[in-house]
Specification:
This protein has about 300 residues and is an alpha+beta fold. It has helices at about 15-30, 60-65, 100-110, 130-135, 180-190, 215-225, 250-255, and strands spanning about 5-10, 35, 45-50, 65-75, 75-80, 85-90, 95-100, 110-115, 125, 130, 145-155, 160-165, 165-175, 195-205, 210, 245, 260, 270-275, 280-285, 295-300. Helix 1 (about 15-30) packs parallel to helix 6 (about 215-225). The longest helix has 12 residues, at about 15-30.
Length: about 300
């Protein structure tokens, strides 16, 4: 029987996201495995993994909001914007930073903000990843982009910080494409000092939180005991950002064959609508690009079994 579902994995430090996929393919004995957004090797946290037919919804899970807990270090910046890179700027002056100052900076950096991706990142310029340019010592212009910061909050109770080097912990709720490393640098710049991100953990990804997750070792144990299905979440989990609509019996043939349908009014508010049969997602539809009164399939998930339709 084919294995299908979304696995809430807790990625441990020291592994790439691809390492996790490679190991899971061996553990679960299936090739159809994909992750939902890269986490750097030194970052741990929630990494939903799509298995089997749920790989079709990986991009929608990736698009959902994330929550991170990070440590910001004020006093020096690095070429990678995190603790792994070489120091590029240092300020050893005695500093006094108040909680009020930090709160005001957080307010400035909440909402839609501009970011320039780090040179050591997987963002592509002219078909080549930025970190490939960086490793060759080639300077390229990086594309500025807008990201969404829902909230930033301090996790420390301190009223002020003093010293040549200052550290504090923050929680960030943000949208797709946000670089927390870059945000740490921006916080430092707004306070008037070089800074970098010295630690990072992703605590939530979409609906998945740390409490939902299992480690690779736990996955191996569940698989060995034949109960891996107990931890997998269904296809519908990856589509919950969209409205669901049960199809009528007369629509079964058309949906099953990926035909264009009369447009549903829900598309006025949402970009997609999930069509269900007996409560199970069978297709994802969107506005037709040329026919204003029609909608067309974006993804097809298949019907439960042939004899049911």
């Amino acid at each position: 029987m084919a294995l299908n579902g979304i696995l809430p994995l807790w990625k441990e430090k020291g592994m790439t996201s691809h390492d996790c996929v490679f190991k899971l393919r061996k553990i679960l004995q299936t090739k159809k495995v994909g992750h939902t957004g890269t986490l750097d090797p030194e970052v741990d946290g929630v990494l939903p993994i799509c298995i089997g037919n749920t790989t079709k919804v990986a991009e929608y899970i990736t698009d959902q909001g994330k929550t991170y807990e990070a440590e910001v270090t004020i006093g020096y910046s690095t070429e990678t914007e995190d603790a792994t890179g070489e120091t590029v700027d240092t300020d050893l002056s005695e500093k006094l930073i108040t909680r009020q100052q930090v709160a005001e900076v957080f307010l400035q950096l909440t909402g839609n903000i501009k970011q320039i991706p780090p040179m050591y990142s997987a963002v592509k310029v002219n078909g080549k990843k930025l970190y490939e340019y960086a490793r060759q010592g080639i300077a390229v212009e990086r594309p500025e982009r807008t990201v969404r910061i829902e909230s930033i909050e301090l996790l420390n109770d301190d009223l002020q910080w003093t010293g040549q080097q200052i550290k504090f912990n923050i929680r960030i709720r943000c949208g797709k494409g946000t670089y927390i490393r870059t945000l740490a640098v921006q916080i430092g710049e707004a306070l008037g000092f070089p800074a970098h991100m010295s630690r990072l953990t992703r605590t939530e990804s979409g609906k998945f939180a740390k409490k939902d997750c299992v480690t690779l070792a736990e996955v191996a144990e569940l698989a060995q005991n034949g109960v891996i299905g107990d931890i997998l979440k269904p296809l519908s989990y990856g589509l919950e950002a969209f409205p669901f609509m049960e199809i009528e019996p007369k629509q079964i043939f058309a949906v099953k064959n990926g035909q264009v349908l009369a447009r549903h009014a829900i598309l006025d508010q949402m970009g997609f609508v999930v069509l269900t049969y007996q409560g199970q997602p069978v297709a994802l539809y969107k506005n037709h690009p040329e026919k204003a009164d029609k909608m067309k399939p974006e993804k097809m998930f298949g019907f439960p079994t042939a004899d049911e339709v």
